[in-house]
């Protein structure tokens, strides 16, 4: 959806101006591409870096950079849980903020060494390459506040893809108090 949104923002019609094969299982797109299917592919990491290391392709653009800040990860909880457990919510958000502070104050090499055990299938050089790419693209914000502009962009993308029946008011769905407290 993000890729198609970017295409539309740049005056291209994904249905008319190109042939996008959406029949391939997402986990198999890199293999299909390296096997000769298609001229371009949209990949998450570590697949993009693996294609480069194999000499099968090159990263030519970042959907994350070209789309604007899309909140790919958001944590949800029932209102009743939040109201009954504010200390758990604040503790969780504080821990996440601590992680954001770490990635924004350390080198790609330092981060890669710390997270390596979570990515056993990748070598340290690959993880470092990915982290450096994310840092160079300014992927990580300095705080966890789910901004209204990002919320609207997400709805624009969903709407553009025909996946949104109705827009939702930001103030009815997003709570930023805990993230605001954590960034202090």
Automatic annotation (TrEMBL):
One family name in Pfam for this protein: NMT1_2
Please state where this protein is localized. Periplasm
Member of which family? Belongs to the bacterial solute-binding protein SsuA/TauA family.
Tell me the protein's name.
ABC transporter substrate-binding protein
Keywords of the record, alphabetical order, are:
Signal
Zinc: is it a keyword of this entry?
A: no
Report the principal subcellular site: periplasm
């Amino acid at each position: 959806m993000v890729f198609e949104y970017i295409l539309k923002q740049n005056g291209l019609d994904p249905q008319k101006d190109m042939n996008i094969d959406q029949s391939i299982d997402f986990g198999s797109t890199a293999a299909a591409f390296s096997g000769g299917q298609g001229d371009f592919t949209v990949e998450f990491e570590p697949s993009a870096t693996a294609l480069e290391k194999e000499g099968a392709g090159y990263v030519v653009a970042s959907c994350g950079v070209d789309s604007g800040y899309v909140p790919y990860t958001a944590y949800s909880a029932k209102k009743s849980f939040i109201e009954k457990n504010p200390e758990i919510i604040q503790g969780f958000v504080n821990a996440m903020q601590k992680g954001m502070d770490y990635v924004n104050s350390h080198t790609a090499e330092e981060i890669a060494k710390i997270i390596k055990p979570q990515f056993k299938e990748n070598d340290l050089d690959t993880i470092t390459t990915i982290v450096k790419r994310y840092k160079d693209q300014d992927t990580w914000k300095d705080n966890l506040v789910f901004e209204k502009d990002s919320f609207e962009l997400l709805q624009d993308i969903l709407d553009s893809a025909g996946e949104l029946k109705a827009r939702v008011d930001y103030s009815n769905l997003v709570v930023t108090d805990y993230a605001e407290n954590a960034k202090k």
